[in-house]
Amino acid sequence: MKEFAIASWAIDNKMTIYLMIAILLITGISAYYAMPRESFPEVKETKIYISSVFPGNTSEDMEKLITNPIEEELQNLSDIIKITSTSQEDYSIITVEFGDRYSVEEAKSKVKDKVDIKKASSDWPTFNGSKIEPKVFDLNIAEEMPIININISGDYPVEKLKEYAEYLEKKIELLAEIKQADIRGAQEKEVEIALDVYKMTASKVSFDDVINTISRGNTTISAGNMVMDEQRRTIRVIGEIEEAKELNAFVVKNEHGAVYLRDIASIAFKEKEKTTYARSFGNPVVMLDVKKLSGKNMIEAVEKIKVILEDAKTNYLPKDLSITTSNDQSTKTINQVNDLVNNIIFGILLVVGVLMFFLGFRNALFVGFAIPMSMFMSFTILNLIGYTLNTMVLFALVMGLGMLVDNGIVVVENVLRLMQKENMSRIKAAKRGIGEIATPIIISTATTVAAFVPLGFWPGIMGNFMKIFPITLSIVLGSSLFVALLINSMLTSDFMKTEEKDMTKKFLIKTTSILFVLGVISLFIGNSFKGLGTLMIFSSIILWVYKLFLVKAADYFQTVLLVKMENGYQKFLSFALKGKMPYLFLFGTIGLLFLSFVVFAIAQPKVEFFPDNEPNQVFVYIEYPEGTDISKTNRLTKEIEQKVYAVANNYKDKEGYNYLVESAVSQVGEGAGNPQTDGGSNAEMPHKGKITVSLRESKLRRGKNSKEFMEEVRDAVGSYPGVNISIEKEAAGPPSGYPLNIEIRGKDYNELISTAKELRDAINKLNIPGIEGLKIDVNKSKPVTEVTVDRKKAGELGISVGQVGSQLRRSLFGEKASVYKK
User: How far is it, in rounded angstroms, from Cα 173 to Cα 180?
Assistant: First the structure.
C-alpha cells in the first residue's frame, strides 16, 4: 500500500499534531493582533537627499556655492540613475537616485562620504564662524505624512497655548512609535537686541564688539579644580543670564568711559518673525503635526496619543482649554483593514457552504478548518519576517482563499471515497488516500506558486512594492499544503464518517448560544476583535439556517442533482472521445485561443498600474513666487479657505452634521510643503500654503462621490494670476511621483521658464482628458536688489567687499550672539 511518510507519521502521532494545532492557533492569533496595520506597505526608495541651509543667499548663490560643488563631487559615484536639485533662497535640496545595487543605508553612507570630502575643502562656505553643515538623509513618504493633528485653542495668549503644546509634544515624542511632533501656528521666542546704528557709530562700537561681549558674558565655564578641607572641588564660573534685562548692564566698550548695551540698543524678549500659521475650519489654533516612524503600528500610536491627551486634560491642562484631533489616519486604516478581514471571513463561510453540498456538513468542516489554520500559520510567518497587515497582504490572502482549499478538498474527498467504495477504516483510508494524492498536490501547489514567482523579481521601487504579493501568496499556499498533509490527514483519520449525523436541537442551541454571546462580547470590545465577533455571530446564524433549511437541500443535491451531473459529464466525455471528435475539440480549443488574442488586440482594454481611487484626503497647495511675504500668502490662503468651506458646507444635513468632510486644516509657511515634491524640506516656505481636507469613510458619505467633491473644490478655487494652485488627493500605492513629467533642459533659466510656460499653456488649451493641474516646478520669480561696491573707495577706506557684505547681512538679517536659557 502506497503511503506518504509525513502524513502517516502525523496520523500515528495525534497528540503531537493536536499540540501543533494549539501552537498555531496561539501564535497565529497573537501575530494577527501584533502585526502593525497600514493602508499600503511602506517601501523605501533608494533616494538620498542632501539639504543645506545657508541664510541670506539667493537661489543663484545657493546653486553656485552649495548645489553645484556637491553635484560635481557626486558624479564619481557608481549606480546613480539620476541627480536632481532645487536651489531656492537660503536653502538647497539635492536628490540622488540609485539603482538596485545598494541598499538605502549603503547609498546614504556613500553620499555622506562624498559630502564630507567636499565640506572639508578650503573653499566651502561658512556662516557664523562655522562651516555650512549639509544634512544627508533618506526619506520615507509615510514618515512625512501626519497620522493625526492635535489642535489646541482657547482664550489664552499664543505663548501660553504654545507652552501647553510643548508639554504634549514632549510626552508624545517619548512614544516608541513616534518620529516627531511639530508645533505649527506658534513661533519660538528670542531675545531681540535692536542696535541703533547711529549710536554705535558715535560710540565707535562695531557689530563684532556687541557679539563678542554677549557671547563671552553669557556663559558658564569650568575654572578647574582645587582642594579645600581635604576635598577636591570643581570651580565653576557662573555667567549665564537669568533675565533678558540683565543684558542692559553688559559693557560693550570701555576706552573713554563705559558704553553699556542699553546705551546703543533696545532689548526685548519677543516672538521671532512669523514663519507659520495654522487654522482648523478657519479658526486659529496651535497645532501639533504628529508623524510616526516607519514600520511602527499606526493604530497603537494613535491610541497611546489619545491616552496622553486624556491624561493631560485631567491632570495638567486647564478645563476651558479646547483640545481636538483631526486628520486621524488610524480610523481609516482600521476600517479599511476590517473591511478586507470581513471579506475573508465571509469568503470562508461561503466556501464551507459550497463544500457542504458536495461533501456533507461534517466533512466540509474538515476543509473549512484548514482555512483558518492556514491563515494563522501564514500570519505567524508574515509577522516573523516583519510584514505589516496592509492592503497588499490582505489582497494576497483573499486571492489565496480559493486556492488553499484545493489541497484540503482533494485530501478529504479521496479519503471519503476509499471509506465509501472500498469500505476501509478511517486510519487505513487516510494513510492510503493521502499517499495516492500527496505528490500531485505538492506539484500542483509548486506550479501555482511558480506562476507568481516572476513578480518577485520585478526591479525598482515597483518591484519592492509588488513582491509582497507573491511572497504572501506563496506563504499561504505553502501553509495550506502543510495543513492538508499533516493536520487534515490526522483529523480525517480521527473524525471522518461516511454518513451524516443529524445535529440535535439541544446541541445546536448550546453551541450557537455560546458563539453568539462570545461574538457580542468581541463586538463590544471593538477594534481588531470586530471581525472575530462578526464571524461568531454569523456562524451561529448559519448553523440554524443549515439545520432548518439546508440539510434537506444538501441531501437532495448529493443524491439527485450531483448524480445527474456526474452522469451527464460521463456521457459528454464518451461523446468527446469517439472517432475524430478529440481532434475537433483540440483544434477548436486552439482556434478559440487565437480568436481571444485577436479580440484582445482589436479591443484593447485601458491599462493602468493602480486604479484611480476615490480620495480620502484632498489637498489644496498654494504657491506664490519666492520672496513673497508670509502675510500675503496667509491672506490668500484665508480667501481660498472660505471657498473650500463653502463647498464643504453643501454636504451638511438639517442638523448641521457634515456627512462628507471630517476636518479641514490650513497651514501657511512651515509644514505647508508637498511631501511628494519637497523631499522633506525644512525650509520656512513663507510663499507656500496648504489646506488639508479629510473626508469621512466611504460608508458614512451617504452615497456621495468624493471625486465630485474634489472637482467642486477645483472649480470653486479657480486660478489667481501669478499664483500656482494645485488640487491633489492622497497618493495610493507605491511612491511613484506624478504620472507624467516633461523635462526641459538648457543653460538659461529665463528661457527655460518661458518655454515651460508656453508648453503648459499649449497643453491646457488642448483640454486633454485626464490631464489636470499642470504646474512648473521651478520658481524663479523672486525680486533681487543688487549692491555693487566701489572697490576704489572701499580700498581707500580700508574695507573689503566681504566686510561690506558681512555688515549688511548683520544689519538686515541679524546674527545669533548666544543662547538664552529660560
Answer: 6
